[in-house]
Design a protein that fits this description.
By secondary structure, this protein is of the alpha+beta class. It has a domain at 2-13 and 23-117 and 132-200: Zn peptidases (Aminopeptidase, 3-Layer(aba) Sandwich). The protein has 7 helices and 11 strands. The strands form 4 sheets. It has a 5-stranded mixed β-sheet with strand order 1-2-6-3-7, with helices on both faces. The protein has a two-stranded antiparallel ribbon with strand order 4-5. The protein has a two-stranded antiparallel ribbon with strand order 8-9. A hairpin with a 7-residue loop joins strand 1 (78-83) and strand 2 (91-97). Helix 1 (2-13) runs antiparallel to helix 2 (25-36) and helix 3 (38-49) runs antiparallel to helix 5. The protein is globular and about 50 Å long.
Length: 284
Amino acid sequence: MKVVLGLLVCVAMASTAAAQGGLSADEKALVAFIDAHNGEAMTLLERVVNINSGTQNHAGVREVGKIFMQQLDAIGFKSEWIDGAPFKRAGHLVATHPGTGPKILLIGHLDTVFEADSPFQKMTPGEGNTAGGPGIIDMKGGDVIIVAALKALASTGALKSMNVTVVMTGDEEDSGEPLSAAREALVNAAKGTAVAIGFERSRVVTVPLCKMRSVDVLGMFMAVPSAILAPRPPTWPRRRGRWTSPRPASARARLRPSGVSRRFWPPCRCRAAGATGACRCRPA
């Protein structure tokens, strides 16, 4: 959670604390808030995990979405529910927080692979500080981290000037049809985005934005900017019941940052790294 929070803080505050070898006072306040409110985050996690939201359980997906809408609205976001009837799914949560900073897109999803008839329905404690439950990693835990990080930023006043959009889709595990309708809300939210962060799983690598394109990364995002956060090199094609698409023909020929899969390197070429170490990009 602290790692993800640090990513948001970096984008929002452009802090030089890391270069100076320590956290700023604001960053320390953010970390302290997360520690102090970890119990609330765990309570929220258990609450949403214990609601079945298999993709085909539309009522359950909407119920989980409503809980996250309330959480985001409480800290100044304007949330709306995109009805999924046109693509035969529950729908999506889109929450916006306008601000003067660069546009940040935070991506999660509300559905799980465990349908209403699955025997795996409740969150249970594991060894040490671990727990098990349907959708904890994939990805209600990530959704809770989004909320917790934004609450921390709100507590210090940093959120006030941030331009943030949160999209939590309701059909990541089994995409609605037509796909263009199912992904319209995410595509629209991604337009003009400077940074996109996905909150599924724990290991992420970033690549710079160049232009909009349709890609598929570990089944998390169906159509997002070329800046994708990939937890691990994905497989191709996707598993049964998920979207498949031809691999970009020239993907392997592109230069790419270390750690980014050859299969999904976006259609842009790296120039020399800037002062921040990020790879600048230009359209191919």
